[in-house]
């Protein structure tokens, strides 16, 4: 089906989103055209400001609109513990259960030998330099229980242990392959309370 260029372009943009096939992209494009001018304006503005105003915290790598992020800047947080997660969505999931009061380190990815992603390709170097000049005594690894999550946890543990830092991993309450982001609060709460030393 040949559409006028502006619609074809819009369909093309939508189809670049994850999980959106050409059929859904076409439906969304036609829906957008039917929206009010005001709603379309807001939508476009929100897309641009999300992209322009967000940055990564220079300390922990969390997505933020101010640097350092609100968590790193919060003097009341426990600075002896760092919880390592794959991305910012995991930080939100952890913050929601209000059980953890230390700092975070966001890897923005995982080591994935299968996909050729090594330690230098994720936000890991800054963790090492961060630990050198800090009072951190425990690092909790909270990567998902997937092959890549495990590979990343093993690597970090191997690097940090000789430095005399206690390295723990979230307990096995989380099912293999489960996403921390989608874990229910009770499961997450148990996982952090029953963490085990690596
Ligand atoms: Zn931060």
TrEMBL record:
Top-level taxon of origin: Bacteria
Signal peptide region: none
Keyword Metal-binding on entry: yes
SMART domains per UniProt: TOPRIM
Stored SUPFAM superfamilies: Recombination protein RecR (SSF111304)
Domain (Toprim) ranges: 80-175
Gene3D superfamilies the UniProt entry points to: 3.30.60.80, 3.40.1360.10, 6.10.250.240, RecR Domain 1 (1.10.8.420)
UniProt KW keywords: DNA damage, DNA recombination, DNA repair, Metal-binding, Zinc, Zinc-finger
Zinc finger (C4-type): 57-72
Family: Belongs to the RecR family.
NCBIfam families: recR
Described function: May play a role in DNA repair. It seems to be involved in an RecBC-independent recombinational process of DNA repair. It may act with RecF and RecO.
Protein name, as recorded: Recombination protein RecR
